[in-house]
Design brief:
The chain is α/β, with parallel strands linked by helices. The protein has 14 helices and 15 strands.
């Protein structure tokens, strides 16, 4: 068994060596564990675990049902390797008494998750941890807290554990969830917890807008779901506050995390913390029965998407497909440190813009030049494949360039270098727009 972990790494490229060692540690210590338990403990996707178990198949007993167990003949040898455990989540909270209370409540009511609402109930430990992490951040005491969806009953944990919060209000589409929360809050004597049946696809009542210091939401894990729930969260939030957002997907699709980061950026929110695989669920095995926590801080620069047409199809069962849209290559440049003589000269700007178009094979079919009284010039070039717009601020030695094409831009990787050479400056900020 020498170099066992290194050998397994060769056939499990998506796993780190520390994760492989942690998986072996779990199998050795448990002396028998189900696939579902492995997923919940590790937060690894079902397919990733399947490939790993296949790679160590010769060490495992023939599976009986979902049970995974190392053969006795190999167990003793593996124990001598002294495998180290792996921290599958960097943060977790343990409160046995509170967790047991939530477990008893779950067992009493026996609610069934509704797939039409993308419900997967969190483990009882997670429901407690979701509350404890907010307390640890120090942002919810004596605050007004909104739960935008709460099939995990974190609102109840919040009410049970502390009376320091001035207001707790749950917004949820599911009348069964709301009825249970309302019944339990009465039984438990929680006097500051209120419910409101609400479909996030509809506008909020004016009385709720800007009325909360903290918003907690675990929305459908779709691009449109995140966007719509975050927009409602921003509307609920007062000028500055916190949003605790949960999002999960397989780490084999990192582009989805990038999309979420871009969406968060559209709202002007700061990602103050991100904890991978923080929450665990019953089901959702394709994403490791886990989601990451984003702690988002709003500031004077944060905003909702007022006026935007937001999606109505937000649930995974709706089999959403990316909207079909013509190919667009779109880049924006902010350029500083340019000579005012260039920026105020129609002739010089046209010469440089022409050189830029020639270098990157942009065919100009029409041109419009506007010279402003005082200072500043705007150039609009209609291209064979879209447009190029340039505007200057000579007083700031700055210009802005917006280039849109419906074919891939030639030599796109050196666009900034071309502009740097033409305008004799290295103060260039380039943004690629989707």
């Amino acid at each position: 068994m020498d170099n066992l972990i290194s050998q397994l790494k060769n056939t499990n490229s998506s796993l780190r060596e520390a994760e492989i060692e942690g998986l072996l540690f779990l199998l050795i210590q448990s002396k028998g564990i189900t696939n579902t338990e492995l997923i919940q403990k590790t937060g690894l996707p079902k397919e990733t675990l399947r490939l790993f178990l296949n790679s160590i198949g010769s060490y495992l007993e023939e599976q009986k049902g979902a049970q995974v167990k190392i053969k006795d003949e190999f167990l003793a040898k593996m124990e001598t390797l002294k495998m180290r455990p792996y921290e599958w989540s960097l943060l977790a909270y343990n409160d046995p008494a509170l967790t047991q209370k939530i477990r008893e409540i779950r067992e009493k009511f026996q609610l069934i998750p509704k797939r039409d609402y993308d419900q997967f109930f969190a483990t009882c430990e997670t429901s407690v941890s979701k509350y404890k992490v907010m307390m640890a951040k120090g942002v919810i005491e004596r605050k007004k807290i909104a739960f935008l969806g709460d099939d995990d009953w974190v609102s109840l944990v919040t009410g049970i554990d502390s009376s320091k919060h001035s207001l707790i209000r749950v917004f949820d589409i599911d009348p069964g969830i709301l009825k249970t929360i309302k019944t339990l809050s009465t039984e438990l004597g929680i006097k500051n917890l209120f419910t409101h049946q609400y479909d996030v696809r509809e506008a909020l009542l004016p009385e709720f807008i800007g009325g909360f210091d903290v918003v907690v939401t675990d929305p459908p894990y779709t691009k449109s779901g995140i966007m719509l729930f975050l927009n409602r969260a921003m509307q609920l939030l007062n000028k500055e506050g916190y949003i605790f957002l949960y999002f999960g997907n397989s780490f084999k699709t990192p582009e989805k995390f990038i999309k979420i980061q871009e969406i968060i950026g559209r709202f002007g929110l700061v990602i103050e913390d991100k904890i991978d695989k923080f929450a665990r669920y019953h089901g959702a095995e394709s994403i490791g029965s886990a989601s990451s926590l984003y702690v988002l801080r709003a500031s004077e620069y944060s905003h909702d998407l007022s006026g935007a047409v937001l999606p109505k199809s937000i649930y995974t069962f709706e089999n959403q497909k990316e909207e079909k849209f013509p190919f667009v290559d779109h880049v924006v440049f902010k350029i500083a440190g340019v000579s005012s003589d260039i920026l105020n000269s129609k002739t010089k700007l046209q010469k440089l813009a022409g050189d830029f178009c020639k270098k990157h094979r942009l065919k100009v079919v029409d041109t419009k030049v506007t010279v402003f009284k005082g200072q500043g010039v705007s150039l609009t070039y209609i291209l064979a494949n879209s447009n190029l717009v340039i505007h200057t601020w000579p007083e700031y030695k700055a210009l802005h360039i917006d280039l849109v094409t419906c074919v891939p831009i030639f030599a796109k990787a050196v666009l900034a270098d071309t502009l740097s050479s033409l305008f004799k400056t290295n103060k260039i900020e380039m943004t690629v727009v989707e």
